[in-house]
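Hello,

Our lab assistant flagged a job as stuck in the queue for most of the afternoon. It eventually completed. Since we weren't sure the result was trustworthy after the delay, we are filing this so someone can double-check. Below is the sequence as submitted and the structure that was eventually returned. Let us know if re-running is recommended.
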Amino acid sequence: MKKIILAALALVISQTIFSQSYDLAIGVRLGTDLGISTKVRIPPFDENFTLEAILQTSLERSEGLFTLLGEQHFPLITRRVNIYAGAGLHVGWLDADPDRAIDYKAPAGVSLIGGAEINFKKINISADYKPVINLSGGEKTMYSQTAVTLRFIPFKRHDLFESPRDKRKKQRQRTRDKKKQDRAISGKKDWQFWKKN
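-- returned structure --
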């Protein structure tokens, strides 16, 4: 029982200490498709949750995709090395192709993703597998995509979003300032606990 409690405690501590190490990362995606990727951390959902937007063109088909994915990151050793998994939606467009069948339509559907990433100062490198399920259009119902993405990190952790610790500190200071102001208005001293404001 002690081992289970210690393992659960270690997991909770690792989630808070070793959380996502950047707020924004932008770069190029190289693999079965070519494109650009932008990842932004969304702390209101979770300290390790990111939203990724991918704009890519296919090397195999005359079409492209825009994908928006929500991804949960799980730190391995530190917040700089983690695995992630997520899901989202995609919509596509068709490039000009005179040999294309008339009933061929632009793809739209659901995308899944699973991968691993590592961060070195201002550089983020990730490798992922991204199955694409077309609910309408596309050449096939499912595309199997893999890629390595190289991103630059213009904003490190807490450059865009305030840390929870700083938020709590500011909230405590606001509470102290409000009490001090209330005491000044009422004329009550700190030690006069029996007096009402």
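-- support follow-up --
The delay was a queue issue, not a problem with the job. The result is valid. The first strand starts at residue 22 and ends at 31. Residues 8-19 have pLDDT under 50 and may be disordered.
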